[in-house]
């Protein structure tokens, strides 16, 4: 895999890679779980135990467990069909594949 020749393409790729963690955090239940665990820790009156990294790790594992069925449904529907003469992204396979994810976000 080679890098793009145009600086604007490289800037665009780096921008998309930099906002990828934000999309992952906002598009899953990770943020909700992390907030609930922080509130629970403060409600119990303990400030340092467990450490933040342990809470975030637990939130990450639980969010993967919660998102598992949704990701499997997206994977089952992810069958791109190339229509002759049509651009790749104009087909409707992407909206069909992402329908379970949209339902999860509601």
Automatic annotation (TrEMBL):
Key words of the record: Cell membrane, Membrane, Transmembrane, Transmembrane helix
UniProt GO BP: protein secretion
Membrane topology value: Multi-pass membrane protein
Highest taxon of source: Bacteria
Transmembrane regions: 12-41, 53-74
GO cellular component: plasma membrane
Matches recorded under Pfam families: FliP
Signal peptide: none
Location relative to the cell: Cell membrane
Keyword Nuclease: no
Keyword Glycoprotein: no
UniProt xrefs under InterPro entries: T3SS_IM_P
Family from the record: Belongs to the FliP/MopC/SpaP family.
PANTHER family per record: FLAGELLAR BIOSYNTHETIC PROTEIN FLIP, VIRULENCE PROTEIN YSCR
The protein's name in its UniProt record: Type III secretion inner membrane protein SsaR
Origin species: Salmonella enterica subsp. enterica serovar Inverness str. R8-3668
């Amino acid at each position: 895999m080679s890098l793009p020749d145009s600086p604007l393409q490289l800037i665009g790729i780096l921008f998309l890679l930099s906002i990828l963690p934000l999309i992952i955090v906002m598009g899953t239940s990770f943020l909700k779980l992390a907030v609930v665990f922080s509130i629970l820790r403060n409600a119990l009156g303990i400030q340092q135990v467990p450490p933040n990294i342990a809470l975030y790790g637990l939130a990450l594992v639980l969010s993967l467990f919660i998102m598992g069925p949704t990701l499997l449904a997206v994977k089952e529907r992810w069958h791109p069909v190339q229509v002759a003469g049509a651009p790749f992204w104009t087909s409707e396979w992407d909206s069909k594949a992402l329908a379970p994810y949209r339902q999860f976000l509601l």
